[in-house]
Every structure is written in structure tokens, then in C-alpha cells.
Amino acid sequence: MEERDSVSVAVVGSGGAGALTAGNFLLEAASLAGWQGLLSRTVGPQIRGGEAAALVRLSDRPVACLSDRYDLLIGIDWLNADRFGAEIEVGPRSLVISDPRGGELPAGVAAAGARIIELPMKEMAKAIPDGRANMIALGVIARLVGLSIDVLSALLEKRLADKGRAAIEASRAGINAGFEAAAGYDFTLRLPAPKPSSARRWLVSGNEAAALGAIRGGVRFAAAYPITPATEILEWLAPNLTKVGGVLLQAEDELAAINMIIGASFGGTPALTATSGPGLSLMIEALGLATAAEIPLVVIDVMRGGPSTGIPTKSEQADLNIAVYGCHGDAPHLVLAPQSIGDCLFTTQWATYLAEALQSPAIVLSDQFIGQARAAIERPAEIAFVGQRVRAANIAGTYKRYALAANGISPMAIPGTRGGQYTADGLTHNERGIPTSGERDHNAQLDKRRDKLAQFKFGDHWATREGASELVVITWGSLTGTAREAIGRAAGDGVETSLLAPRLLSPVQPEQFAAVIAGKARALIVEQSHGAQFHRYLRAHYDLPPEVRVLNRAGPMPIRASEIHRAIMEWS
Amino acid sequence: MAVVEMRPACKPGDYKSDIKPIWCPGCGDYHVLMSFSRAFAELALPPEDLVVVSGIGCSSRIPAYTSCYGFHGVHGRALALAAGLKVTRPELTVVVASGDGDGYSIGGNHFLHACRRNIDMTYVVMDNHIYGMTKGQPSPTTEPEFDTALSPGGTGLRPFHPLVIALASGANFIARCFSGEPNQTAAVLVEAIRHPGFSFVEILSPCVTFRPDEREWKNLVHPAPVGATNDPAKAARRIMTDDGFNIGILYRGDRKPYRPAVGQAGVDLAELERDFEL
Questions:
Q1: What radius of gyration do chain A's Cα atoms show?
Q2: For chain B, percent helix, then strand, then coil, each to nearest 5?
Q3: Among A17, A138, A180, A318, which residue carries the largest CB count within 10 Å?
Q4: Burial bucket for residue A57 (CB in 10 Å: 0-12, 13-18, 19+)
Q5: Burial category of A436 from C-beta neighbours within 10 Å (exposed 0-12, middle 13-18, buried 19 and up)
């Protein structure tokens, strides 16, 4: 029997058919059985009746990205499934399971040379009281990947407890029917048995991990305006902030949301909002205010396709320019990017710590892929970063809120502190905060705000650096895991490649970057942006190796590990 | 045992900073500043527990002229900033200062939602029916026939009616004042700050530079003939039918202020991970 190092399954159906539920159950059951895995969703913009797909990849080791193509594709129905185009690719070694009454197979799937088995999932479901076709599909998958009925049964008891006995039994009967139907298939996708592990394990999405990271970093106020694909951060924070003495306020728009967190932070409470590109665009003016008035805060931007409304449900890395350069005037601030689902926790916690320490706004550039994907991972290690703002206390004499301290960080008085009264201002101001239009104060305060960021020691977390080869893949954000997989495959082919992925995008780290690049002859820059924003950003701030190639593409078609692997091999 | 510190009696001068206002000589906002000081002294609030939040415009310069904490933010967003501050620091007294451009034009949406949200704060709009800082463009409260460089021959637009909007949106206290009557204005501000929930005080404050005709307001204003009502229907009828110069507290509602649920601090953060554990 053939064993693989990972198995990839796509479940497709029109919105409401339950494809995403089947995918979630599959990931969780596989996790309970000891495997690791990743579930990404790709959906159209409609709430119901659009196209939806759950993309699951399982392995006995950590899974950082989706695979190039799918071993198993199940179509509960094929309504509008052609809209996914190349996002869900199958090949001659794939198995496609299709309901004959589910509409016409998309042309791309039909032409792929995959083995196709017809299974009347809808009809089978009808034979079961309250039966649903997605559970039939789940039973089929369970048989093919080697997942036991017992694990699935235990999961149903847990997940459907509030829906009652009948719902659990209907689902169980559906899974059984699928499991039996697949018994006769001469096809398996069996994974190696999971390695026994005593590590505590989590099933978590990037958005949830980011929200937990924020609370761990000290955030106790959030302002919320719903936007796809960031809303889950706010929905997770709403109940959980109150458990730790915090507050969430729903704002009337993103302009209000960013100003609410400025107000909360001015009052001494570490504060956050989460949004996506259109919301970030609206927040930019107030981010400039927070920079000028030196108000710590965190904005998580879960990037989606742009410009304008773009593709709300799908991922892209094209908000780099606005995050780094969006403000008018010279407005240096923090920009960070998490590199995996688990790293959403670390990076958001670190961003909160840095924002507080540096009295600066921090933008966290997550994206739809890691934000809405759900992973079974080992519990991330706890880190010690908790926001500690330098506060002014026991103030005697004239308080200078923006005093020109050597490290650029001036103690901040918060309301209630006697003698610390000052007016925070977006107008150019002097050390006391009093508005001025003179060149001396303008330059002194611009220098102060630049230098506090430039002088800070960010430590090793600024970037992921792996390998010593003269050929380096430079990427960022959610593509870090994909690049690592490609580098692993190239190593298997005998080609060594190193990896550099900055987690800290602003302020730039020229000395540290130069140290990594020293001796490297070639750089392959990989990014999910039509305009190669990351490449241009690197060019603007850093010296690159003599030879540079760029692999860039707009979303929503993810850059695959196979493409990076091919680019490495073609250059060897 | 808590040590109770004796403070000297509060004088209006204790609430003024050493910064000289940028306002034109004769600007109504000087009197509003005087009214702020008198009201704060009357309430005997420690200046460090008072926060004055504003946006952009002539009137929005007021925070730095007080000895309180202040925030001079971006144009139109003062109410949102103040909301974030007040829900996280409910023990502070929060006063928001704005003008007719800042509050009713660019900040109009926040005005609606602040009234509706009913957080315990006081919103003071110094209304001079003109954009002063940008030198005389029509604001939402400018009369339709008023001629400006940006609106030759007038806008032809019906003015915005802030008091009715506030009432319809759920403000809990609504008053109209005239800057030229600083004692009366101070007395209304004291009531507004004491009243729970969102209090809205519109102060007619002449712009002597771009609206010299507003010097005439002192002859037009008159005290409201009857006291405040808590009946929104009655208040609406009165506000809709008065001459715009009716001065006093016009509505005093009894909606409960918004206080978000806040849990206990000190809960073990490890509890939050339970959601994720397999």
C-alpha cells in the first residue's frame, strides 16, 4: 500500500451544501487521531447559493501550506464550481467523486485525466431521516484516508451535542453509508500513522490566534467594525475580552473604530482593531495622528484581494505599500507580518508589546489565507512579551509629554495623573505638546519619532533566517511556509537554498539584512502581489544580491510550493 | 484607610492654561472657554480627572486652553475618540468640543451614533454657521442665501437642524446656549455634565470675522419660555417650531447611559486557550 507524506482533499458544494462543515469535521477528527493538518476555505461572496470549497491537507508532520494538487476531490454538487478555476487542481493520479445529480463536472476537472467515480450522495442522504450529503462525503473520505468511524462518532457527540440525539444519529448514519460505499473503491490515500506525542495540541485559525496574542500582549480594549475576512478576530475578542476585564465596542465605521482605540490608548488601555484593506484605507488619517501624538495601538489588517472592494473572500499580499507608506507626511510606525497560523499569535503579541514600548501604532499584516485557515498544531510556546508603556508619575514642575529623550521614548502621562495634563495633538508641537509651526520643533519631533524606532533593538524575531546557501528565497507573511516546503523539496533534489522572511517590515533593519545577505549571489523574491510591492520595498531599503529573480502574482490563485520549487530548480 | 487630601476651593482660573488662544478678537469662543472654566470650578472637578476632546477647527482649539487633559485629534472624529476613552476610563469626566463643520459635516455620522449610544459624556458644539479656520465657506448650518466664494449666491440648501437630529437619534439631554451669556452657559454645562448619558449643548458662538452679521445674535436670543421636558414628542414640537434663538435646557431624558459589560480583571489567561485545545 502506498504511503504519502501528506494527503490533500477538497470538498466542493454550493453555499449551504455543507462542504465547509465536512472539511471542519475532517480536520478535527484527523487531529483527534493524532495527525496535523490545515483547512483553508475558498468561497464566493454570497452567503448562500454561491460556491464553497473546503481544502484540507493532512500529514504526520506540521502542515504550513496547501498542496499543489488534490488527491481527492468530492463534489457534493458542481454548481458554480467552475468559478474556482485553477484554485483546485486535480491530476491523473487523483480521484474525483461526483454526484451524478450534482450538475456537470467542471471542464478542467473532466479534462485532468483523474479517475472519476459516481456516487449518488444526495439520494443516499434522502434514505436517512434528516440525512445530509456532506456527511456521506465525510464517510467516504474517512475510509480513503484511514480515519476510524470511532473517532468520527466521538467528534459528532462533541460537535452536535446542542443539536440533539436525532441530529447526531442522522450524521452518524450518513458517515456510515459513505464509509461502506467507499469500501469497494480500489484507491487509498493512507497516511503514515501519527507519531505519538505528549505535546498539547490546538485546533485554531490564524484570526483566533491573533486575537489571543493581542490579549496576551495586554490588549484590553477593541473597537469593531465588521469586514471580511477579519471579523472572526473581533467576534472572538467580544466574549473573551470581557473575561479578562476588557471591553469591546462596536463602531459605526472604521473611522470611528480607529479613533476609539486612540481614545482608549490615550487613557492608558492597550487597544486594538482589526480590519481589511478597505477599512485600513479609511483608518490611515488617524494612524498618522497616532504616529504624531505617539499613541500606542495595534491594527490587524487581514489582507484580501484589492484594490477597492476587490475580492473580499480571497487572499493577496498587496496592502504592503499602504501599510508602510500610506500616511501623509513622514510618519514612521511599526509594520509586522505573521508567517503562519501559529505565528499570528506570536506576531500580534509582539506587535502589542512593541507598540506599547515604542508609543507607536503597529499594523499587523495578516491575510485571508492564514487568517481564515484552521490548523491542527502543537500549542505555540508562551512568550514573555507583555506591553509595558513608560508612564509619567510623580510629576513635579512643567510636564513635557514629548521631551527629547535620548532613546526617543518620553514618559506618557495618562489622565488622572496630577500634574501631567497635556493636550495630545496631531498638529506639529513642541516638547510640551503645544502647537507650533516652527522648523526647529518640527524637525526635533520628526527626529524623535524616527529615532525611537531606528534605535530600538528588535532582536532575532525581526526575520526568519534559515540555511546558508548563496541562493536565497526572500518572501514574507503567509508564503513563508510555502517557501519552506519548496526549499525542502529542492534539498531532496540536491539543491540547497536559504530562506529569509522578515517578520518586521517597518522600521527596516538594514544592518541585520546586510548580515544575512552577505555572500549570497542570487535572490528569488516570492510574493502574492500583482505589482511586486515586496520586491520594490526591498529595492528601496536594502542592497540585494547581484542576481535577482521575482516570482510574483496577484491573488486569489495561491503561489504553490511547486512553483517556487520549479523556480529554484530552473536556476540551478 | 484612604487619605483624603484637602484641596483649595476651585476657582475658574484654575482651569485655564498659559497658552494664548489663536482666536480672532471678539470671537464667541473666548466666552465659551470662560463658561467651561466656570462650570468646571462649580463642579469642583480636579483638572487631571477632566478630559476635553476635540476635532479640527477654531472651536476645536479649546482643549489646550484649559488646564485639563486634552486631545486635539483629526477632523470630525472627536466623539469616537471620546467614546473609546470613556468606556475604558468611566471615572473620568469627558467633554467633547466641536464646531458646526467638524461636528455636523465631516463628523455627522458619529454625531448620530454618539446620541444613539448614550455614553455618559457632554458634547459641546460651538455653532457659528461658517467654516472659520478655512476662511468663510458654508457649513451645514449656514443659511441658504448666504453668499461665499465657494457658494456664490448662497448654497440654496436647507440648514441642518442639530437639536432635532440629536433628539431623534437618542441624545439624553439637549440644550441651546449663547456664548455671550457665559454665566447662563456655565450653568447649563454644569447640568449637562451632571446629567447621566449623552448630553448635547449647542452654543451659538458668533464668528465676528466671517459672519459680522452674527453680532446681532445678542439682540435675538431669549430664554426658553418653559422649562425642560422629558417628553420627546413635546421637545420635538418645541425645537422644530422655535425661532432658533430659544436659550436653555430643552430636553432632559431618562434613558440609562450605556455601560458595556466589563468582566473581572485577573482571570487566568490560560482559560482563554480552552477554545483551541483538542
A1: 25
A2: 35, 20, 45
A3: A138
A4: buried
A5: middle
Q: Give the residue extent of every domain in chain A.
A: 6-184, 203-378, 390-456, 459-570
Q: What is the largest CA-CA distance in chain B?
A: 75
- For residue A51, give Cα distances in angstroms to A19, A45, A112, A408: 10, 9, 21, 52
> DSSP H helical segments within chain B, as ranges?
29-43, 78-88, 100-101, 108-117, 162-169, 182-194, 217-220, 232-241
User: With contact defined as beta carbons under 8 Å apart, do A340 and A480 qualify?
Assistant: yes
**pLDDT level of residue A1 (50, 70, 90 thresholds):** very low
Distance CA B131, CA A524 (A): 54
Tell me how crowded residue A107 is: count the other CB atoms within 10 A of its CB: 9
DSSP label at B137?
B
Q: Quick check: B1 pLDDT over 50?
A: no
Instruction: Report the pLDDT value the prediction gives residue B133, as an integer from 0 to 100.
Output: 96
pLDDT bracket for residue B3 (50, 70, 90) = low
Q: Chain A to chain B, count of Cβ pairs less than 8 Å apart?
A: 187
Strand blocks (E) in A51-123: 51-59, 70-75, 90-98, 115-118
Q: With contacts defined as CB-CB under 8 Å, which chain B residues touch A252?
A: 80, 109-110, 112-113
A18-64 per-position pLDDT tens digit? 999 999 999 999 999 999 999 998 888 777 778 899 999 999 989 99
Which chain B residues are within 8 Å of A283, Cβ to Cβ? none
* A447 pLDDT more than 80: yes
Whether B155 and B144 have beta carbons less than 8 Å apart is answered as yes
pLDDT digits (tens, 9 = 90+) for A264-301: 999 999 999 999 999 999 999 999 999 999 999 999 99
Q: What angle do CA A207, A353, A452 make, to 5 degrees?
A: 130
C-alpha cell at B248: 436653555
A245·B63 Cβ contact <8 A: no
Cβ proximity of A366 and A210 under 8 Å: yes
C-alpha to C-alpha distance for A194 and A147, rounded to whole angstroms:
11
User: Has residue B8 got a pLDDT over 80?
Assistant: no
CA distance A480 to A485: 9
Query: Of A64, A16, A72, which Cα lies nearest the Cα of A37?
Result: A64
**Would you state the pLDDT for residue A190?**
83
CB contact under 8 A, B46 and A245: no
Query: According to the CATH classification, is domain A203-378 in 3.40.50.970?
Result: yes
pLDDT in tens, A69-93: 999 999 999 988 888 888 899 999 9
Q: What share of chain A in percent tops pLDDT 90?
A: 90
Please indicate whether the domains covering A203-378 and A459-570 agree at the CATH topology level: yes
- Using the beta-carbon criterion (under 8 Å), do A244 and B269 form an inter-chain contact? yes
Phi-psi domain of A416 (left: phi exceeds 0; alpha: psi -120 through 50; beta: other): left
Average pLDDT value for chain A: 95
Structure confidence at residue B44 (pLDDT): 96
| CATH 3.40.920.10 holds for A6-184 | yes
| Angle formed at CA A323 by CA A318 and CA A329, multiple of 5 degrees | 130
Dist CA A374 CA A312 (whole Å): 18
Residue contact A259–B84, C-beta within 8 A: yes
- Phi-psi domain of A39 (left: phi exceeds 0; alpha: psi -120 through 50; beta: other): beta
Q: Which three cell numbers stand for residue B27?
A: 470671537
List the domains of chain B with CATH numbers: 47-255 (3.40.50.970)
CATH architecture of A459-570: 3-Layer(aba) Sandwich (3.40)
Output phi, psi for A388, to 5 deg: -135, 105
d(CA A346, CA B160): 49
Q: Which residues of B touch A209 (CB under 8 A)?
A: 276
